[in-house]
TrEMBL record:
One MF annotation (Gene Ontology) recorded for this entry: 2-amino-4-hydroxy-6-hydroxymethyldihydropteridine diphosphokinase activity
Gene from which the chain derives: folK
NCBIfam families from the UniProt entry: folK
EC identifiers of the protein: 2.7.6.3
Annotated ranges, domain 7,8-dihydro-6-hydroxymethylpterin-pyrophosphokinase: 99-110
Pfam family for this entry, one: HPPK
Annotated signal sequence range: none
Keywords: ATP-binding, Folate biosynthesis, Kinase, Nucleotide-binding, Transferase
Similarity comment: Belongs to the HPPK family.
Organism in which the protein naturally occurs: Acidovorax facilis
Entry protein name: 2-amino-4-hydroxy-6-hydroxymethyldihydropteridine pyrophosphokinase
Function: Catalyzes the transfer of pyrophosphate from adenosine triphosphate (ATP) to 6-hydroxymethyl-7,8-dihydropterin, an enzymatic step in folate biosynthesis pathway.
Pathway entry: Cofactor biosynthesis; tetrahydrofolate biosynthesis; 2-amino-4-hydroxy-6-hydroxymethyl-7,8-dihydropteridine diphosphate from 7,8-dihydroneopterin triphosphate: step 4/4
Amino acid sequence: MNLPDLGEEGERPALVYVGLGANLGECEAALRNALAAIGQLPGTRVTRVSPLYGSAPVDAGGPDYLNAVAELTTALAPQPLLQALQSIEQAAGRQRPYRNAPRTLDLDILWFGGQAIDTPELTVPHPRMAERAFVLRPLADLAPERVDAAALQAVASQDIHRLEGPGWADAVVGG
């Protein structure tokens, strides 16, 4: 995989939460491979991963998704991290033919060290996070203090179910 020039690493690692999803191909393998690739980024370590969830697509068609959230620490700044995550998606065959198209891999920065970021390329916290059970439920497993109880209640009717506990990704966590 060819990563973009990631620039200089930051001085202090930031705590980051990244949403992972896939609904085309070998989804669980794609999520594990993505976690391994994230863990290989400069100054980056995957520290924990939520249980694996299955969910129906939201505002889209196609097969059900596998979803999880990863907690990581990274010395990368937000923009270089976004570029690296997009390179990992591309290496997994991600195509963007239209908005909310089915995908082999989707990686979203949900939260980055408490920063509010609003650029044309990146908005953090993720702007639609509070509308999506497939993000809130796995994030609540890792960081319940980051999930508003009212938002979690508001998405309770969305079709999502826990498939596996956090051990599904043990081989790639903490490297």
